[in-house]
Recover the amino acids of this structure.
């Protein structure tokens, strides 16, 4: 069996580079579908309980910092732009630009996590962390009318808040790790215009994590917010 | 009802039996007739769309008969007759606590008269259990935090197994008992033997002792809605929703008053979660259900003139 | 890579010296392999270990149930035994067995590829399975879990003090093994088919595994998040399923069954694919209604996602929801029935022989029919109210999972054993085992239908004396069944050294896997095949191929 010259990244069980790229792409899309189903379970729980305990959810939501949440949303959207630009740079063979955008993406991801950390700390200080220390005396501000809520139901809101944003943050951490590794490999010249599939697929992952946040933000932060 | 379930079962068994026999016989007959020794050359047959349609559509219609008959029985099983005698059941690990409205209490046994519709109103103190009486062909899971219902009419006196049918821990298989069905005469005798206040009497005492009467008055409009004639009517809430005041509503209003605020009232009722037990809740629910506008003995001890109209909304 | 057209009737190649089994003898070459065939063998060994472990627990259950009193072990122990039996059998045997053993081995070869799309992820799948297996074994050794494999809340979150979180972690990790296998199969089947192998030329085993993989990929993440929520509630006392905190125990059941119902289709679909292959080969003809059988697999996968609440008819769901789910549950029966009818029709004007794999295929058809019909009885709500949570349900699911999945697996294992190992199993012993399995199985589980209808609830450590006779019959059957399962263990291992050497195509079967050597070389084919023929082209396989396997 003679060995034709080929891109060192081509794995031997594939017929050709195109097949490998198509396979990797389909594989990543399928993985993203599993992530959607995974988060879907929590969205389902959220849906059920929000319908059952709207007032408490609204009261809890109003205790979240809408500015920090909005800032984080902007940070993530910008990071998705940098991801797209990184892919384009890879396609164009611009190594340094590629590395630059990958690094910026990681930094933006870390910014998101730091802001999240501040939010969590604030929740901790206000005793809004579910469990033994939970205390909730705030009301649902319904256009000026203060409606008291059952603190247990508010605790349910915060349980879902921490579960959903926590799981999301875990995926962000993984994403930052992934992109850091890619940045190092890109610096070493692993990616060429002929082969930059990992950048593309990692980009897909990052975009999904971003989209999940874009759903989380209004569902958690914007319940019954009036100007 | 049990007879109907058995009739349906026999029908299903027949259909399944015929189907199974047909398949078994077909496979055996074909396997023998076309065995290699006799039939060395196979004939390649692609298929037959007509056959596929036939053997998809016909089974589907047969299945429809299963569905319809089963759904009819189920609908009857889930619709207790309006005049059923109610019995409260509280399940806990690992026993059944029964409370008759007349006040009789039982553990792991339920005495009922023949010919009477019995509706069980059940809840659990801890985990999910399931009330299963094989002889009556009925079963219903019993959940913590809400009521589920089950009804039956016993026709033959005797003792019938009661099992817990939802795994609930160590003594799940020991959580059994009996449904004791008696002729009405014997049942009345059994009922009479044993001093116990009717459930709604207990409820009335609790209503007073816990201070409910302070706000839920029957003579004038108090801080809380008048509960006379409330049960089973539709209630308009603050947020515009219309809900039915059934057992679950009454129970929830005691444990979680801010969940549903009646229109025109303020959310000032304290919660009684942790203060009342499940049995006490049952008594209170029974009492509220007994508050009918016409000739209720309970109201005679209340001061002043006519009982206030139910659902009369007065803004404070 | 050069590729040539391989004619449909080319004579099989002689067994070469170097194949995937002897291509590297070190432990490292096995534990770090990326060869899908070696990974399949790794799975074969581990899945068999868990099967016998689960079977051991089954024996303990049946022994305890010989007498009405609980006299062999304490109630708590019994509760742990049936829980571990269920968890191991469901998550560590039934879900992976056919895809990870037969699927891993055959999917690439059947489509003419050199390996799966992601060989390293395939190896990762196996390691995840092993890690999950180690965790669940640790749980067993340090006290076990007693919630039933369905771990309903609030019992599992607030009341039991057994190792729920660790067991949940084990299942979570094993679930990812399943997800990655499914992902691998979907990408492989979509992107790596040999030239000329269009979708309508694919073997039905591939169609089944494809449909199964769709379910694995879409359903498993939901049980994963459910486990996470249960663990979080247990560890941090959050009120997600606790009614005292505003939660709803029924939400757990919905989330759990949303996966666990499609999960049973993960179990049965690949086995159905095996049966299609067996019937075609041993009747020497193309499966009747190929297109319908192929699409019925996909239909089962899709409809399987719409019926989960038929496990909850008496759980406290609304009357109307129950009726809808009952109706939908019947719809899933139609494609399954279509398969059974098509297999039966395939026998018509076939040329039928009775090798062991075919006996298992016959057994599957009969027992799956019975299991499936009792499933329709359960879908009938009026009946379900009476028999749910009784031994009727236990009998139903054992009929489809053991009478169905396991028989299909055993049939496939016997069928492809020569391809995987290069050796034939002893036919007489194999036929005896098949008979023991069939008889033992029916004796074990048929009485349980009756037990259930007369009212014996499931998960009962002790029971009223009037149920004893049927329980004794059931236990007697179980000992025969156990013998039927132990025999293959022995003769398969025996065959590795003393079995007749098999050539490339001992069954004269159609399919690309039979066009390469037994065992295949590491990269499956010496040249990439180019497919110009339809599946099951039994009319083109010449007479000279029909001979008994030659000893060398």
């Amino acid at each position: 069996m003679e060995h034709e010259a080929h891109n060192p990244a081509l794995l031997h069980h594939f017929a050709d580079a195109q097949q490998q790229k198509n396979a990797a792409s389909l594989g990543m899309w399928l993985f993203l579908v599993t992530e959607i189903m995974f988060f879907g379970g929590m969205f389902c729980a959220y849906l059920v309980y929000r319908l059952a305990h709207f007032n408490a959810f609204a009261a809890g939501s109003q205790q979240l910092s809408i500015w920090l949440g909005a800032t984080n949303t902007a940070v993530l959207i910008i990071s998705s732009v940098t991801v797209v630009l990184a892919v384009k740079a890879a396609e164009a063979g611009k190594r340094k630009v590629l590395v630059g955008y990958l690094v910026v993406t990681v930094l933006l991801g870390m910014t998101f996590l730091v802001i999240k950390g501040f939010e969590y700390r604030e929740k901790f200080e206000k005793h809004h962390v579910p469990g033994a220390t939970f205390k909730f005396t705030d009301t649902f501000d319904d256009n000026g009318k203060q409606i008291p809520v059952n603190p247990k139901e508010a605790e349910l809101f915060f349980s879902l808040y921490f579960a959903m944003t926590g799981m999301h943050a875990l995926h962000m951490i993984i994403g930052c790790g992934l992109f850091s590794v890619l940045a190092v490999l890109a610096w070493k010249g692993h990616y060429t215009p002929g082969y930059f599939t990992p950048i593309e697929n990692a980009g897909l992952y990052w975009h999904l994590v971003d989209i999940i946040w874009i759903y989380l933000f209004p569902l958690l932060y914007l319940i019954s917010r009036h100007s | 009802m049990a007879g109907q379930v058995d009739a349906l079962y026999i029908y299903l068994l027949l259909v399944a039996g015929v189907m199974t026999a047909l398949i078994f016989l077909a496979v055996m007959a074909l396997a023998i007739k076309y065995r290699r020794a006799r039939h060395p050359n196979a004939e390649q047959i692609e298929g037959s769309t007509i056959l596929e349609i036939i053997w998809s559509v016909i089974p589907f219609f047969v299945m429809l008969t299963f569905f319809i008959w089963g759904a009819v029985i189920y609908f009857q099983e889930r619709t207790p007759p309006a005049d059923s005698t109610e019995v409260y059941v509280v399940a806990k690990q690992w026993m059944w606590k029964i409370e008759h409205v007349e006040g009789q209490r039982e553990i792991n046994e339920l005495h009922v008269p023949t010919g009477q519709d019995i509706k069980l109103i059940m809840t659990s103190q801890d985990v999910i259990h399931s009330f299963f009486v094989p002889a009556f062909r009925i079963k219903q899971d019993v959940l913590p935090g809400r009521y589920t219902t089950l009804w039956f009419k016993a026709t033959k006196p005797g003792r019938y197994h009661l099992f817990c049918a939802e795994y609930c821990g160590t003594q799940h298989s020991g959580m059994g008992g009996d449904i004791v069905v008696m002729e009405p005469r014997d049942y009345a005798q059994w009922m009479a033997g044993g001093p116990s206040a009717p459930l709604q009497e207990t409820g009335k005492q609790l209503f007073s002792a816990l201070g409910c009467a302070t706000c839920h008055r029957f003579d004038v409009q108090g801080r809380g809605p008048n509960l006379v004639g409330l049960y089973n009517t539709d209630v308009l809430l603050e947020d515009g929703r219309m809900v039915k005041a059934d057992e679950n509503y009454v129970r929830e209003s005691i444990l979680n008053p801010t969940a549903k605020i009646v229109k025109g009232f303020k959310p000032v009722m304290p919660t009684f979660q942790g203060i009342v037990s499940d049995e006490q809740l049952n008594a209170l629910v029974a009492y509220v259900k007994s508050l009918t506008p016409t000739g209720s003995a309970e109201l005679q001890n209340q001061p002043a003139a006519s009982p206030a109209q139910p659902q009369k909304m007065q803004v404070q | 890579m050069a590729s040539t057209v391989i004619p449909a009737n080319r004579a099989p190649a002689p067994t070469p010296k170097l194949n995937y089994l002897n291509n590297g003898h070190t432990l490292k070459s096995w534990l770090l392999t990326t060869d899908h065939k070696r990974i399949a063998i790794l799975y074969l060994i581990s899945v068999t270990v868990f099967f016998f472990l689960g079977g051991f627990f089954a024996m303990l259950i049946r022994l305890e149930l010989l007498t009405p009193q609980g006299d062999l072990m304490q109630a708590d122990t019994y509760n742990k035994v049936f829980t571990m039996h269920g968890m191991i059998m469901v998550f560590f045997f039934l879900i992976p067995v056919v895809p990870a053993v037969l699927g891993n081995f055959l999917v690439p070869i059947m489509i003419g590829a050199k390996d799966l799309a992601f060989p390293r992820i395939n190896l990762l799948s196996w390691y995840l399975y092993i890690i999950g297996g180690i965790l669940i074994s640790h749980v067993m050794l340090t006290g076990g879990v007693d919630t039933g494999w369905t771990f309903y809340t609030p019992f599992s979150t607030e009341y039991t003090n057994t190792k729920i979180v660790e067991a949940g972690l084990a299942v979570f990790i094993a679930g990812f093994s399943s997800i990655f296998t499914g992902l691998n199969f979907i990408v492989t089947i979509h992107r790596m088919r040999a030239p000329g192998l269009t979708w309508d030329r694919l073997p039905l085993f591939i169609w089944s595994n494809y449909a199964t993989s769709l379910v694995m990929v879409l359903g498993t993440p939901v049980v994963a998040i459910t486990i996470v929520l249960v663990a979080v509630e247990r560890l941090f006392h959050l009120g997600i399923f606790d009614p005292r905190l505003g939660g709803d125990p029924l939400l757990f059941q919905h989330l759990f069954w949303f996966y666990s119902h499609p999960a049973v289709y993960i179990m049965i679909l690949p086995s159905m694919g095996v049966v299609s292959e067996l019937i075609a080969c041993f009747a020497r003809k193309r499966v009747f209604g190929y297109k319908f059988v192929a699409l019925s697999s996909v239909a089962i996968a899709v409809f399987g996602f719409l019926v989960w609440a038929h496990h909850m008819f008496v759980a406290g769901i609304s009357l109307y929801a129950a009726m809808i789910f009952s109706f939908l549950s019947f719809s899933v029966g139609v494609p399954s029935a279509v398969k059974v009818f098509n297999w039966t029709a395939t026998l018509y004007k076939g040329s039928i022989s009775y090798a062991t794999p075919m006996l298992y295929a016959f057994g599957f058809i009969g027992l799956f029919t019975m299991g499936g019909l009792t499933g329709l009885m359960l879908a009938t709500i009026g009946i379900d109210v009476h028999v749910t949570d009784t031994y009727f349900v236990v009998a139903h699911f054992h009929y489809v999972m053991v009478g169905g999945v396991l028989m299909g697996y055993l049939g496939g294992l016997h069928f492809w054993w020569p391809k995987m190992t290069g050796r034939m199993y002893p036919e007489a012993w194999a036929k005896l085992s098949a008979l023991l399995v069939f008889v033992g199985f029916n004796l074990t589980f048929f009485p349980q239908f009756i037990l259930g209808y007369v009212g014996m609830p499931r998960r009962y450590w002790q029971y009223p004396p009037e149920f004893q006779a049927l329980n004794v019959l059931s236990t007697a059957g179980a000992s025969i069944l156990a013998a039927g399962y132990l025999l293959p263990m022995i003769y398969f291992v025996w065959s590795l050294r003393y079995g007749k050497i098999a050539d490339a195509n001992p069954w004269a079967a159609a399919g690309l896997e039979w066009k390469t050597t037994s065992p295949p070389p590491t990269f499956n084919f010496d040249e990439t095949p180019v497919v110009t023929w339809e599946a099951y082209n039994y009319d083109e396989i010449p007479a000279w191929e029909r001979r008994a396997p030659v000893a060398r």
In short: The first strand of chain A starts at residue 139 and ends at 142. Residues 29 and 204 of chain A are 8 Å apart (CA to CA). Residues 151-187 of chain A form the longest helix (37 residues). The two ends of chain A are 72 Å apart (CA to CA).
